[in-house]
Specification:
Blueprint lengths: L3 E6 L2 E6 L10 H15 L6 E6 L21 H21 L4 E5 L2 E3 L1 H8 L2 E5 L3 E3 L14 H5 L1 H10 L4 E2 H6 L5 E3 L4 H13 L3 H16 L3 H17 L3 H13 L1 H10 L3
Parallel strand pairs: 2-3, 3-4, 4-6, 5-7, 6-9
Antiparallel strand pairs: 1-2, 7-8
Helix pairs in contact: 1-2, 2-3, 2-9, 10-11
């Protein structure tokens, strides 16, 4: 079964993450399908706007935590660098997409899925949506350090350093992570209505306006800052402290919940 669904109607392409049994956790196969359909929409002159959403109970729980293992004889650090760099490029694919992208998010929108929603041009959230960046709880870093550029330093520091996964749609709206909130049953109608409103505009003017908006941040050092943060994330993933080794052992033997409970039990 395809892990991404794609359909087109009246100038709007709808791209839906389709791994509902795993809360649309994004694995390697899904990344390949996303890249294929993004290329398809990019080169289709009939597509003026892209809407990204998720099937089932959630937009996405983020990247699949099971990274896999390097092949025999392959250097572990090189393997990790390649995997994380691929993930980073997949997120930035939405930022670099030349046509407007609207994210319609519901249920859980966590980790790198939240980063994807943040790099989209417009984000519309169902009122049941929960956001978060729990990476530090797992001993991981941030693949795409987009949040400071979207929600500001103070809000980004709070979300990323606490590792919270309980940011409500109302809080997300207040800090600028989303543009608007609607009821869950109206989410796709609202996203497609905004998409059609954009699609009615001059296609070249829209494309160049998005380009100008992106370049205004890149002139301020946006791309260099993301690249530097990516190197730090690779460093985090390649390092092994006694704490991270024990966490990973418990995770492998008893599951993620047990590992998180072990970490919580270490504090008085």
């Amino acid at each position: 079964m395809s892990k991404v669904r794609y359909e087109k109607n009246a100038g709007v392409a709808n791209l839906r993450l389709n791994r509902p049994d795993k809360l649309n956790a994004i694995d390697g196969d899904m990344l390949e399908e996303l890249d294929f359909y993004l290329s398809k929409a990019e080169h289709d002159d009939d597509v003026r706007v892209l809407v990204l959403s998720g099937e089932g109970r959630a937009f996405s729980a983020g990247f699949d935590l099971e990274m896999g293992e390097p092949a025999a004889g392959e250097d572990r650090a090189d393997f990790i660098r390649e995997e994380i760099s691929r993930d980073f490029q997949s997120i930035m694919r939405f930022w670099d997409f030349p046509k407007p992208v609207i994210a319609a998010v519901h249920g859980y929108c966590l980790g790198s899925a939240m980063e994807i929603s943040a790099v989209c041009d417009i984000t519309i959230a169902a009122e049941d949506c929960r956001f978060g960046a729990p990476e530090v709880r797992y001993g991981s870093g941030i693949v795409c350090m987009i949040l400071p550029w979207i929600i500001g330093q103070k809000n980004a520091r709070e979300l990323l350093l606490t590792g919270t996964d309980k940011v409500s749609a109302e809080r997300a709206l207040a800090i600028g992570l989303v543009n608007r909130i609607v009821t869950a049953d109206k989410l796709m109608d609202e996203a497609n209505a905004v998409a059609r409103e954009i699609a009615l505009n001059d296609i070249d003017a829209v494309r160049l306006t998005k380009k100008a908006l992106n370049e205004s941040l890149e002139a301020a050092g946006f791309r260099n800052a993301l690249a530097a943060a990516l190197e730090i994330d690779i460093r985090i993933e390649c390092s092994e402290s006694p704490e991270s080794q024990e966490f990973n052992r418990i995770h492998a033997e008893d599951g993620l919940k047990a590992a998180l409970n072990w970490r919580a039990s270490r504090l008085p």
